[in-house]
Design a protein that fits this description.
Layout (H helix, E strand, L loop, with lengths): L1 E4 L2 E4 L8 H7 L18 E4 L2 E4 L12 E3 L20 H9 L8 H9 L3 H4 L2 H4 L11 H8 L23 H6 L14 E7 L5 E7 L1 H4 L4 E5 L30 E2 L5 E7 L2 H10 L1 E6 L37 E9 L2 H6 L3 E9 L11 E6 L5 E5 L4 H11 L7 E4 L16 H11 L3 E4 L2 H7 L6 E9 L5 E13 L5 H8 L2 H4 L6 E9 L13 H19 L3 H8 L24 H14 L10 E12 L8 E7 L5 E5 L8 H13 L6 E5 L15 H4 L1 H24 L7 E3 L2 E3 L5 E2 H4 L2 E7 L6 E12 L6 E11 L6 H20 L31 E4 L22 H13 L10 H12 L4
Parallel strand pairs: 1-5, 6-17, 15-16, 19-20, 23-24, 30-31
Antiparallel strand pairs: 1-2, 3-4, 3-5, 6-10, 7-9, 7-11, 8-10, 12-20, 13-18, 14-15, 14-17, 18-19, 21-29, 22-23, 22-28, 25-26, 26-27, 29-30
Helix pairs in contact: 2-6, 16-24, 19-21, 23-24
């Protein structure tokens, strides 16, 4: 087949059934991304004879004789192996100026579609971009890039870069398609791994007949539980492995959910591996399945983890019930007495559903044995160091015998705080002695990874006539699914800050996480708080109505303030302090913004309403979060920051660059970033819990400050001057004897460390004005305002993007996202066509406002602000719908049929 790719003639023979996307990637054009396998996400968009095409739907042979343009060649002819772009297309320049990306995985496809739009199409971007999905940005920056707008990107210069809107270091690579993600490597002689998954919600493997699979041409190995280490572990990754139940095996003879790994086939080609999986013959002993979490703790409920199935010292601990995966109980004061003295009491039951992370880059891993014999994995993870430690422990290796590295990661949201591919790839590498790669399909991402924990929350709130709270009570049932990864951590976190945010003398919590034979839940943005905040903030809205108080006033009257004890369900000491406080500002900013501009009037027949909610979050997870950093002055006079944290759209590389440049008096462009490699620093717990700035950033600041002292001391020696008289200034050190160039001083380096304690608190307030059609149940957002207490904002443009992305994801969870489970335990939602994540047309612009605070805990006064914007959104939206219709929605998502039924029930006088 002959065709033209990016201006150059190309000749090759596509395989039977090969799509154009895979053909182009194998030719080295890695800007063509794999996101959905079904033409739903647009990450693979190219131009075919000048027209945008989803290349995953196009058979490769149909490109014969035609001209293909990928993101790399949009600005003109280029080579596939070029490390950097030589020029940029105007649309690439526009995305660069607007910083219209975060993780950047969807960006090449988004730009290719945008570059093809005419002026008429640009007037309706909701329709024009319906085939391109982004999980990170919230689309505002994307829209600004396409139609034009005020682009606040600033150029770097000497002086303090903190507080400025600087571009991400990798921005030119992202918009040109040259940024490399996990699977963006030539296949070479790498073997391919595919997995046979369980068709049953609960079964025991009686036998595996692999003879036919091994006979498939190209199959190298078939791996079953007999080949896997017997040691149990948790896929969840925390600093202390004991925080999570060790209830998982690499391959387990007991299958506990539809989609669990049964066996793996390793082959020379992906097609051979898939054929090998189809040839496997497995005999199952099907067992009764537990699908209802409300039944989990009944005496006769099926046992998801039966101790008789896993004898030995590392079996899951036997609790009060085998299906109890975690629990939290506590009380302060006299809760019954508090309700007795209340003038108004509200009680209700609220339910939150499963939600998929839906990162555009699926989980993937490439493993090999390096020349020095070390097991090496390139993987899409938020926790490279904890993954290395787990692999070493699992396979009986020393830590320094394992290396884990990350390229750029295409979104995480907590879903990559798990070890879901690395263990099986490592087993295959050690078994075969050859490099192995495994990339999940979008279907596998749905059926075989993790979700948000679905929860049932019983909430009860008592208050006096003046709105003062007298009692708070939460009873929480969290469904962890088949495995207990994050079960204990999520239930504890869900029951903590939600109550600590309010001053009330009487509080009570009872929380339980239970196993079921369903897809496992795990870490998800908010880590349990969004579910309980939805319940409590909805209940407080009813309390405000019951006592005749404005909802903002109710929060001001009861919210925790500096000097108050932050108490959730016990009086035990903790390390959370008020490093700064901006909740009062956030409440005022949102209230005044709504008053100044309530948004457009609703259409005739639609009902308008306003609602708000607030949230508090600890800026760092408990029980240890550590980070090392090394900053060096290199021989060329530039600086290199080496950190362990991964970049996956969280913006840490930008923030670390600005922090280091500030401490070193350098232009940000002179600071390079190297990260997410277990060889370059001692340790990093990982990029989760919004710690990339407040923990790893603090380590970078300390390393940079230490290096600045070393540089001044060396310059003082050269100049014969006191070190205190020397000052870094750009590319030189100013001394009384004259300037000393950095090139004359270097090379030098210094290290820094942060241990994640003490911890501060951050606040978020969101408000909506909505219109609701009582006839159809449709909801339109007329106005969206969010205020964030992020401390000193290192990069306002980037932080605004983080807030917008969290809001967009939360809107999806509040309005339509729902991982649905069938009666047999299988997933109904396995593609983006079945699972609706927000598209451009779905997400309104949000006015984002920042409180003016300076935190004593975070680096240079900064706080965390990646996951917390998600938390108040569902409650604020539910409260606005309640204000518009009089109907209290107690379950997400707020689908039109639910809204219609609730409004209709209210008209009929039903409860």
């Amino acid at each position: 087949m002959k065709l033209t790719i990016n201006g150059a003639a190309h000749e090759g023979a596509p395989r039977a059934g090969q799509c154009l996307r895979t053909y182009l990637r194998e030719a080295g054009w890695f800007g063509v991304k794999k996101g959905c396998d079904a033409g739903d996400c647009g990450a693979c968009t190219i131009h075919l004879d000048g027209e945008p095409v989803h290349s995953c739907l196009m058979p490769a042979f149909r490109a014969e004789g035609r001209s293909v343009t990928t993101i790399e060649g949009l600005a003109g002819p280029c080579r596939a192996d070029a490390a950097e772009p030589t020029s940029l297309h105007p649309m690439q320049e526009a995305f660069l100026a607007a910083q219209g990306f975060q993780c950047g995985f969807c960006t090449p496809g988004m730009i290719m579609t945008a570059a093809s739009l005419n002026q008429g199409q640009k007037q309706d971007l909701g329709t024009a971009l319906k085939g391109n999905l982004c999980r990170c940005t919230g689309y505002r920056a994307v829209r600004e890039a396409i139609v034009g707008g005020t682009h606040p990107v600033e150029s770097g210069a000497c002086g303090d870069p903190v507080g400025r809107n600087l571009a991400a270091p990798a921005a030119p690579l992202v918009v040109s398609g040259r940024a490399r993600f996990t699977m963006d490597l030539p296949p070479g002689d790498t073997l391919h791994l595919k997995v046979l998954r369980s068709p049953h919600a609960h079964a025991r493997i009686v036998a595996v007949d692999a003879s036919a699979a091994r006979a498939v041409p190209g199959v190298v190995a078939v791996l079953t539980h007999a080949d896997a280490p017997p040691r149990r572990f948790s896929t969840a990754r925390h600093e202390d492995p004991r925080d999570d139940a060790s209830d998982t095996r690499v391959l387990d003879p007991i299958l506990r959910f539809v989609g669990q790994r049964v066996a793996a086939v390793v082959a020379e080609t992906e097609a051979a591996a898939e054929a090998g999986c189809r040839a496997l013959r497995v005999t199952y002993e099907v067992r009764p399945a537990l699908l209802d979490p409300e039944r989990a703790l009944e005496a006769d409920a099926p046992r998801v983890h039966d101790p008789r199935d896993c004898p030995g010292e590392d079996a899951p601990p036997l609790g009060r019930h085998p299906n109890l995966a975690g629990e939290v109980h506590g009380a302060v004061g006299d809760v019954d007495g508090g309700f007795a003295e209340a003038d108004f009491v509200y009680a209700g039951t609220f339910r939150s559903q499963r939600v998929q992370h839906a990162a555009m880059e699926t989980h993937g891993c490439i493993g090999w044995c390096a020349e020095d014999g070390r097991l090496t994995l390139r993987t899409s993870t938020q926790v490279p160091f904890l993954t290395r430690d787990a692999l070493a422990d699992l396979f009986g290796l020393e830590k320094d015998a394992v290396r884990v590295v990350c390229a750029r990661v295409g979104g995480g949201f907590g879903g990559k705080q798990e070890m879901l591919t690395e263990d099986l790839v490592a087993l295959a590498v050690l078994y075969t002695g050859r490099p192995v790669r495994w990339e999940l399909t979008r279907e596998e991402q749905f059926v075989g990874t993790t979700t948000r924990h679905p929860m049932r929350v019983d909430v009860k709130v008592g208050a006096r006539r003046d709105g003062t709270l007298t009692a708070l009570s939460l009873d929480v049932l969290s469904e962890t699914g088949a495995y207990g990864n994050h079960a204990g951590g999520v239930i504890h976190h869900a029951c903590h800050e939600v109550l600590a945010a309010y001053v009330c003398p009487n509080k009570q919590v009872s929380g339980r996480a239970v196993y079921t034979n369903t897809v496992p839940a795990g870490a998800f943005r908010g880590y349990g708080l969004s579910q309980t905040i939805f319940a409590l903030e909805s209940a407080l809205d009813e309390v405000a109505r019951g006592v005749g108080l404005d909802p903002f006033a109710l929060r001001r009257r009861n919210a925790v303030k500096p000097g108050d004890a932050m108490v959730s369900n016990s009086l035990e000491p903790h390390d959370v302090i008020f490093g700064s406080y901006g909740l009062d500002q956030c409440l005022t900013l949102v209230e005044e913004a709504l008053r100044a501009d309530p948004g457009p009037d609703p259409e005739a027949g639609w009902r308008a309403g306003t609602g708000m909610a607030m949230a508090m979050i600890d800026t760092i997870p408990p029980r240890g979060h550590h980070a090392d950093a090394r900053v060096s002055l290199d021989a060329d006079g530039h600086f290199t920051v080496r950190v362990g944290t991964a970049e996956f759209g969280n913006g840490t590389s930008t923030v670390h660059r600005q922090i280091a440049a500030s401490a070193l008096g350098a232009a940000p462009e002179r600071v390079r970033i190297a990260g997410a490699d277990t060889d370059i620093v001692g340790h990093d717990t990982g990029a989760y819990g919004s710690t990339g700035t407040v923990v790893a950033g603090l380590a970078t600041l300390r390393a940079a400050e230490a290096l600045a002292l070393r540089i001044c001391a060396r310059a003082a020696e050269i100049a014969g001057a006191p070190p205190a008289s020397c000052r870094l200034n750009g590319e030189q050190v100013e001394t009384p004897a004259g300037p000393v160039t950095l090139a004359a001083v270097g090379p030098l380096d210094a290290t820094g460390r942060a241990d994640g304690s003490p911890r501060s608190v951050a606040f978020n307030v969101h408000a909506f004005r909505v219109a609701v059609d009582p006839v159809s149940g449709a909801v339109r957002i007329l106005r969206s305002v969010h205020a964030a207490d992020a401390g000193r904002v290192i990069n306002p443009m980037q932080c605004r993007g983080q807030v917008e992305g969290g809001i967009a994801q939360a809107l999806g969870a509040a309005l339509y996202e729902d991982v649905r489970i069938a009666a047999d335990g299988s997933l109904v939602t396995q593609t983006f066509r079945d699972y609706h994540i927000p598209a451009c047309a779905d997400v309104p612009d949000t006015e984002v406002l920042f409180a003016d605070t300076h935190d004593s805990v975070g680096p240079l006064g900064a706080k965390s602000m990646s996951e917390s914007p998600f938390n108040p959104v569902a409650a604020a939206l539910g409260n606005a719908i309640r204000d518009a219709t009089g109907a209290r929605l107690t379950a997400t998502p707020f689908t039109p049929d639910r809204i219609y039924r609730a409004v209709a029930a209210g008209r009929a006088g039903l409860p």
